[in-house]
Amino acid sequence: MFRACLVIWLLVLLLLKLGAMNGHLGFVVGCHDAEREALLKFKQGLNDTQNRLSSWEGKDCCLWEGVGCDNVTSYVNRLDLHDPSCNPYNYNENDWSWSMISAKLDRSLVELSRLNYLELSCIDFQGNQIPGFIGSFKHLRYLNLSSSNFGGVVPSQIGNLTKLRTLDISKSPHNFLIVDNFLTTYNLSIDFNWVSKLGLFWEVQIWISTEPPV
Fold it and tell me: What pLDDT, on a 0 to 100 scale, did the predictor assign at position 149?
């Protein structure tokens, strides 16, 4: 009898501990509502020409294509929507096409505050500027916005990503990073002061040209 009571008590303690780790008493089943809604709002802003996000339905966004969650807390920590058919390092600009087109990077993504991996390469953002809220993902270690047709000024808020180890904002086929001796730019510009705020990089790729596009 004593042994049975001890086993039950240990199970209760285990459940309480798991509940505390998840921020409430009980198990987290699937992803968190706010994060699921944020992903759905982001999807609404995409023209998914190849229906790559057809799996984005149902309550558990952790099971959706391109979405990864923490095994314990079920918070989204990974978003990978790169086009597997896109090779940004071997392309013909005349034949360039995107399987996803977006008017902008929707601010709803700030709900994914635990993100440590964000891969949005080869999505057409139609010359829009990289938004400043990209600097709010304080846990981000990997950021790839290459070949995504961003334009404008690269925001200094990227300097807030002190845990970042890989950054790729290279190769946009229709918007160019042009830097002259005074760090003035054409079409896409960058203030390099934010770089000094970042942590130790494993890899960084910034595509720089010295001539404006014809």
Answer: 82
